[in-house]
Amino acid sequence: MTRTRLAAIAAATFAGALLLSACGGSGDSGSGSDSGGSNVVGDITCVDGSIKAAGSSAQANAITQWITDYQITCEGATIDYQPVGSGAGVEQFIAAQTSFAGTDSAMKDEDLVAANERCGGGPAINLPMVGGAIAVAYNLEGVDSLVLNPDTLAGIFTSTITKWNDPAITALNPDATLPDATIAQFHRSDSSGTTDNFTKYLATTAPGVWTYEPGKDWVAPGGQGSKGSDQVMASVDSTPNSIGYVELSYVLYSQVAKAASIDNGGGPVEATSENAANTISGAEVVGEGNNLALKIDYAVSTPGAYPIVLVTYEGVCQTGLAADQNPALVKAFLQYAASDAAQGDLIEAGYVPITGDLLTKVRAAVEAMS
Amino acid sequence: MATTSHEPTTTRADPEGISGAAVRRGDRTFLGLSTGAGLLVLVVMAAIAVFLVWKAIPSIQADSANFFTEGQWLPDSDPPVFGIAVLLFGTLWTSIIALVIAVPIGYGIALFIAFYAQRRLASTLAFIVDLLAAVPSIIFGLWGLYNFMPYVVPFSQWLSEYLGFIPIFANSQELWTKSILMAGLVLAIMILPTVSAISREVFVQVPRMHVEAALALGATRWEMIRMAVFPFSRPGMISAAMLGLGRALGETIAVALILSAAFEINWAITEPGGNSFAANIALKWGEAGEVGRSALIASGLVLFFITLVVNMSARWVIARRKDFSGAN
Q1: Which residues, 6 or more positions from A110, have their beta carbon under 8 angstroms from its beta carbon?
Q2: What residues have CB less than 8 Å from A213, skipping those under 6 apart?
Q3: Can you count the helices (H) and strands (E) in chain A?
Q4: A108 φ/ψ angles, rounded to the nearest 5 degrees
Q5: Which chain B positions have a beta carbon within 8 Å of A223's beta carbon?
Q6: Which of B3, B144, B195, B321 is deepest in the core (most CB within 10 A)?
Q7: A contacts of B286 (beta carbons < 8 Å)
Q8: How many other β-carbons are positioned within 10 Å of the β-carbon of residue A19?
Q9: What are the φ/ψ torsions at residue B289 (nearest 5 degrees)?
Q10: How far apart are the C-alpha atoms of A370 and A210, rounded to whole Å?
Q11: Number of C-beta neighbours around residue A285 at 10 A
């Protein structure tokens, strides 16, 4: 009896879904014939058709916002981005299952060789599109601003500094009243690009204290792991005297936690999108030609440059993407992504825009796609 | 309900439908279908085993450490260094804690439902316990993390303050959340329905005459349970615990959310730490590279064998005591 009813519900749902998709289909084709291929609306060049993409979950919110904006303007376009993780995203791109990949670290040489082949000679290139800042979030009652430097940060995250009133911390914060409490340190328990960039920062700037290999997995002793930035943030929010590292947007929306300022030697720098953008635009391009793989200068001590940043890329074919994977739509979408409007939206979402000369290079690289 | 159960008799009006030939054909079809269904399970099991072995081999060959004794998990480093020691320890340790807590309570619930509670209360309670089994594990994980954990922290502190001389209760970190104990408690709640439902089924199959004979001889209810119910039900009770263990071993997302996922062997159950096979796979899969994925599958293969052994030994216990068992 229950079975029958379940089956009936399932059938009804399925029929409903068919009906909906049928409606969607007809709507699409209608608008498609109206617009007639591609047309330009504001900064957006509309191209009909659909593409699939997958990869980094760190840039998922930014990409999703751009997709929504693009599709509102261009009704004939369908872009599907699955946040499956960088590794899986690059793998699917190389296997020609997707039109482009989102990845937290630029595709390396061995990946590029495989990707070039997939692009019919290509070349395949990395385009920095979405920047991020990693904030050190802390939960200390009565402490509204906290300054940390690389050695202190590394000490806290390797559990060699275990108390909030440790001389190393009080020396940096003479005006704050720091409690005689154990530091509850939270890190990511899952593999993530955030951990990768955070540990790269520590390994570059505090090599004497952080003696571990930087990587996607947390390897230092002590502290507590939480799954995903959302859980790290929730753990910090709910645990007094705690500290953790999360993407900037999480701490902006937190009611409890605040972001520490980082002093790389040039004075304390607040964790803001603008300050992080200064570091990213100063990064050195290490890729060849239009491959804009970057080397971030984590040790930057320019005033106003927040050093703990990450850059996520789109892995694309500069040329040679198969026609059925709609290279024109990929190009049009990335043109929009590199536009002032789209990059401007990033700040609001807690991301960091690409600015300055680097953005000019990104735009030139997108223009060169065919 | 009543109308549907009568339907078959009313529709079978055609006398040809119950002639010998038709029955034999139907028999043969049904035999084929049921044999096929049985074989399908074997095929699926074999396919899973082959898939796991096939995908695991590259990483085990690439591993520069001992796969069974290494405690770190860095399969995507160069050279790859990974092993299952910590995962095995954490999986077993959390599951044992869950069993120690859930089994006595599960038996208690089953006994209460089978012998103490009034009929109406018993069926309501049985229904609610079964309902517990239908709660998705992510709900248990989130509830455990946000709702249950604040209540466990004082309990952990109490344990370490008064029983801290026993090494497993000691806490040198002064941190109490995300502990093995916490994961064990949530797992205990999750396996409770399995343990209590199976042992309840066993208890109600104790022959009425045994029970009544014991009572007639002047036994109290507890003496009756001890003398008539337990000896008869022991194999079933053991297999209930083993099936609970099987579920605890494989639980993924609740453990992934709760445990601190540290790669160290730490016996202290009130300190943050620990990791398990299933949780590690869930946490590492998304960003894992080629060797990393293969390594995770290799760890899955080990879990597959452990669960297989646990379930087979449960079956073996039941089969060995078949004469007395109510579970068959």
Answers
A1: none
A2: A203, A219, B74, B77
A3: 13, 16
A4: -85, 175
A5: 260, 272
A6: B195
A7: 57, 84-85, 87-88, 190-191
A8: 10
A9: -85, -165
A10: 45
A11: 16
C-alpha distance from A83 to closest chain B C-alpha (Å): 9
Q: What is the pTM of this model?
A: 0.78
What does the alpha-carbon distance between residue B41 and residue B56 come to, in Å, rounded to a whole number? 22
Spell out which chain B residues touch chain A, with contact meaning CB-CB distance below 8 angstroms. 1, 4, 72-74, 76-77, 145-146, 173-175, 177-178, 256-257, 259-264, 272, 282-289, 292-293
Q: What stretches in chain A show pLDDT beneath 50?
A: 1-4, 6, 10-36
Enclosing H/E stretch for B73: strand B73-74
Chain A segment 232-291 residues within 8 A of B by beta carbon are 234-235, 238-239
CA distances A86 to A55, A91, A240, B89, B119, Å, are: 5, 8, 33, 30, 57
- Which residues of chain A neighbour B171 with C-beta distances below 8 Å? none
- B73 to chain A: which residues are within 8 Å by CB? 217
Which are the contacts of A44, defined by CB distance < 8 A and separation ≥ 6? Answer: A70, A73, A74, A332, A336, A339
How many whole angstroms separate alpha carbon B209 and alpha carbon B228?
10
Q: Rounded distance, CA B200 to CA A78, Å?
A: 54
- pLDDT tens-digit readout, B46-72: 999 999 999 999 999 999 999 999 988
- Residues A109-158 have pLDDT tens digits of 888 899 999 998 879 999 999 999 999 999 999 999 999 999 999 999 99
Beta strand A242-247 pairing with A124-139: antiparallel
Instruction: Report in angstroms the alpha-carbon separations of A349 from A132, A247, A312.
Output: 10, 11, 15
CB contact under 8 A, B178 and A184: no
- B142 CB neighbours in chain A (<8 A) are none
Cα dihedral A207/A210/A211/A215 (nearest 10):
-110
Q: How many CA atoms lie within 13 A of A74 on its CB side?
A: 28
| A227 closest CB neighbour out of B74, B257, B262 | B257
What is the spatial distance between Cα B47 and Cα B38, in angstroms, rounded to a whole number? Answer: 15
A235 contacts on B by Cβ (under 8 Å): 177-178
Report d(CA A80, CA A63) in Å as an integer.
Answer: 10
Residue A227 near chain B (CB below 8 Å):
yes
Check residue B33 and give its pLDDT. 93
Q: Does A86 touch chain B (CB under 8 A)?
A: yes
CA distance B309 to B261: 25
Q: How many of the other CB atoms lie within 10 Å of CB of A58?
A: 24
What's the rounded Cα separation, in Å, for the pair A185 and A48? Answer: 49
Whether A224 sits inside 8 A of B260 (CB atoms) is yes
| Residues B269, B185: Cα–Cα separation, whole Å | 11
Nearest to A224 among B1, B146, B175 (CB): B175
Give pLDDT, residue B320: 74
Q: In Å, what is the CA distance from A57 to each residue of A71, A104, A205, A243, A325?
A: 20, 9, 27, 23, 22
Task: Tell whether A25 lies on the interface with B, counting CB pairs under 8 A.
Answer: no
Q: Which two tokens stand for residue B110?
A: 């089953």
Question: Chain A residues with CB inside 8 Å of B272's CB?
Answer: 223-225
For residue A189, give the nearest of B145, B261, B264 by CB distance.
B261
**Joined tokens for residue A76:** 């004939």
